[in-house]
Amino acid sequence: MNDERAQWSSEPAFVFSMAAAAVGLGNLWRFPYMVGENGGAAFIVAYLVALIVVALPIMMLEVGAGRLAQGSVVGTFRRVNRFGVVYGWFVVLLTVGITSYYLVITGWTLGYAVSAARLAVEPFDEFTGGYNSLWYFFAVTLLATLVLIRGVHAIEKFSKFLMPVLVLMILGIVVYAMRMEGWAEARSFMLDADFRRLTSPTLWFFAFGQAFYTLAIGQGYLVTYGSYIPRRTHVPRASLVVAGTETSIALLAGWMIFPFVFTYGFDPGTGSQLAFDTLPRVFEEMAQGAWLAIGFFLLFFLAAFSSCLAGLKVIISAVAEEFRMSNVRAVVAVGVLMLCLGLPSALSFSPVGLSIMGMPFLDFMDQFGGTNVVVTSGVIGAGLFCWCVPRPKVAYALGAKSRWWEYRIYVVGRALPFLALGFVAWRVLQS
Questions:
Q1: Distance between CA 220 and CA 74 in Å, rounded?
Q2: Residue 334 pLDDT class (50, 70, 90 cuts)
Q3: What is the C-alpha to C-alpha distance for residues 295 and 168, in angstroms, rounded to an integer?
Q4: pTM score, whole prediction
Q5: How far apart are the C-alpha atoms of 374 and 217, rounded to whole Å?
Q6: Is 39 in contact with 197 (CB distance < 8 Å)?
């Protein structure tokens, strides 16, 4: 097996790497602000239903597809169906768009880590008052390029260190948050659901988007990481562990941030900068907050950086395989592409203030690509795989002896395109 198809050293190594790939931005950054913008507990209920009933089976399908084909996302879906190559490139282009603004947000986390080390953490408006977003975006992109030149094993070693330390840091902040004045209000916000809101198709749409986002569905991550999975891996078991880890960290991120949001009178619907508005105030008020800020923002950067590595690996794998390029040449080419495509998102939080449809360009990209297109991509991929690949091959790809998993995943994959069309009709009728 060549270097491009090197394997994770074990099933736990895959779990650590996949969890680290999605935990950084999908959970620590995006989940709290989506909860804040969409009504708190009602959104969490819809999110959990979407994740358990639909997102988890699709996650297993995508990992299994990568394991079966042992190739990039384009090569994988080319083997599924002769028209699958079109969908494969669609996924790659989607991941290009998402990664372009991921790198900008990761630059924010690096900037805050540097500011914390200088004992001068700034409010978000001050941090983005100059061109910090641009300079840190450049720095993160170059650093990611250097790491990816080392290959898949560099990602594995990095992830094994990151996950345990990050979880411990988050738990420590949650314990501190429990003593804040806003704890009771945050608890009500996250636990007391107004079930009338569950009749809103828009709420469910964003919940499905976040569930897909949490598990990195429809973005090629799972297919690409699955292509490196050892043959003896039990895909449903590994996916359950990853999904449980991702969801737990997402919920912990809410418990970490919202007590401070309500204590200091912030608006929970602030948007993409919610964590960056809130956390500097948190550390400013805490005893030993300066040292905690250094540790937290450094880990936040590492978690976000792991998400960027995963997205870039999807793109690089496709470029190297389809254009017959060496890993190093593909990494450099994709790095240059990201430097160009990430500029509009970086400039949207700078004195240029680049915006579209009345919102910063970065927020527009996240609302459009991070929800609408990700959901569409996940539905198409699941349907394509289950309608075009015989069930015995799906079972083989999953590596599970239990037929319960096999039938459930296969039925969900086949039914999902029709359910999605029904949901669209419901949303149109409700509008």
A1: 9
A2: very high
A3: 11
A4: 0.83
A5: 7
A6: yes
